Amino acid sequence: MSRKxxxxxxxxxxxxxxxxxxxxxxxxxxIQLGQNGPLVSRLGLGCMRMSSIxxxxxxxxKESIATIHEALNNGINFLNTGDFYGAGHNEMLIGKAIKGRxxxxxxxxxFGAIFHNGQWLGMDLRPMAIKNFINxxxxxxxxxxxxxxxxxxxxxxxxxxxxxxxxxxxxKEGKVRYIGVSEITADQLRxxxxxxxxxxxxxxxxxxxxxxxxxxxxxxxxxxxxxxxFANTAEGLLTGELQAPLAENDHRNHxxxxxxxxxxxxxxxxxxxxxxxxxxxxxxxxxxxAWVKEQGDQxxxxxxxxxxxxxxxNIAAMDIVFTPEEMNTLNTTFAIGxxxxxxxxxx
Length: 347
What we know:
The strands form three sheets. The chain has an eight-stranded parallel β-barrel with strand order 3-4-5-8-9-10-11-12, surrounded by six helices. It has a two-stranded antiparallel ribbon with strand order 1-2. The chain has helices at residues 10-23, 61-73, 89-98, 127-141, 160-172, 186-195, 216-223, 260-280, 284-293, 311-317, 324-333; strands at residues 30-32, 39-41, 44-46, 78-82, 106-111, 113-116, 119-123, 146-151, 176-182, 198-204, 226-230, 299-304. The chain has eleven helices and twelve strands. The chain has one domain: TIM Barrel (Alpha-Beta Barrel), CATH 3.20.20.100. With 347 residues, the protein is an alpha/beta fold. The model is unreliable at 1-26 (pLDDT under 50). Helix 8 crosses helix 9.
């Protein structure tokens, strides 16, 4: 599938930078986690891409640390990691970045996923495993308390009561401040919140992945639980940069969304997004992030990056607003089921 012309003219990129210059003159909007939780930046920094997760090369550490510093300098204090990102590398990296700046950062850590040689083996959510995980995380991060601690997924192998109850005990010990959950069902979310107040739900959410709107999102709103929304560009589908077919060595070839006729059909919808972004003087990625932000005051877009050069466009995205016509175009084009095929979000 081909497109005419370049994706963005140079002046469009310049406009994005100028927008950023205006953004840094004011504070990043805050969002409250849960009913009585803390105020954190409305835009979250996902640190996963600063480490090797699937056996790839590790990004430049100095640049990653500089990216965290730049984010903190601009009011982005929500730093998201997992103890399994790079087998602990990600936590150690963040530990270096926040040394001497602990009060500037709100640290969110996922636990429970087990990897070996870059391959995902499953989950370990047993209470004794959680008590083991927390101590290693605290040591790697170089801190005494993790701000938000959450199982990376509920797989049914351990009762929700045991998982959340164990983290609640860690709060009593002073090792955790707030409890979060990730990749969970609406029923599990309600059960978890009955055991201990849940402050945040981390879940994939984008124009291309709107499954949570049927049950999970309403449940979170009902319980006043904040949404930390990752994968805003749906594995790069919504960047406006993909063309079919993908390169043979692209890992996304494993997902049906990026295969054959599915990808061709999906890119036709992305073309509408690209044109809308072009008309607004923005990038498709920015529109995708802004759409997530516009879905509710309790929703935080969590954007992964490892380079400072990405910060200006992502911060500027938080100021984008849509006309009713533009929002209708996006919601209609990317209605539930409009994107063909699945990704890891359906694991």
